[in-house]
Amino acid sequence: MIYARHIFLLLFLCGVNSTYGGADPLLMIHTAQFGKEPFEWVWAVPQSRAGAVAQYDPIAAELPVSPHQAIVSASEFIRTQFPASIQLRPESCMLLARGLEKNPVEGQLWMYEVFFSPDPLPEPFQSDLLSVMVLMDGKVVVPFKRPKK
Q1: Cis peptide before 143, with omega less than 30 degrees from 0?
Q2: Entry pTM
Q3: For residue 124, what pLDDT band results from cuts at 50, 70 and 90?
Q4: Distance between CA atoms of 80 and 6, rounded to whole angstroms?
Q5: Three-class HEC string of 71-125
């Protein structure tokens, strides 16, 4: 009986690993480079998340996430990206549809882009981080660095 439990657990873990391990490609939303920095910022979502995010049709329905909710989520996130010595104020909140790479799930995602005004100005390569993308699930698209191609 103990052996059967261990075998079940092993099979379960193998199934979880094959579902999440590399089989979920990233869909690019946006990339940004600054000057001669050896990296670029990338905003992307796993394909599974793109399919799970509430889809928005501006003609058919109300927004699943309000501008206020988007600004709160973006503000909480951006506070983790800069030192406390930098004051960050929301400057604008724009609703837009961003196209995704060709994929079988979704051709575009509606999102908010919340722009922040810093005081004092951060390092130049951090300026791209002053724009925070919030999807229609209320969660931020977390950018990451990758080496320039």
Answers
A1: no
A2: 0.74
A3: low
A4: 41
A5: HHHHHHHHHCCCCCCCEEEEEEEEEEEEECCCCCCCCEEEEEEEEEEEECCCCHH
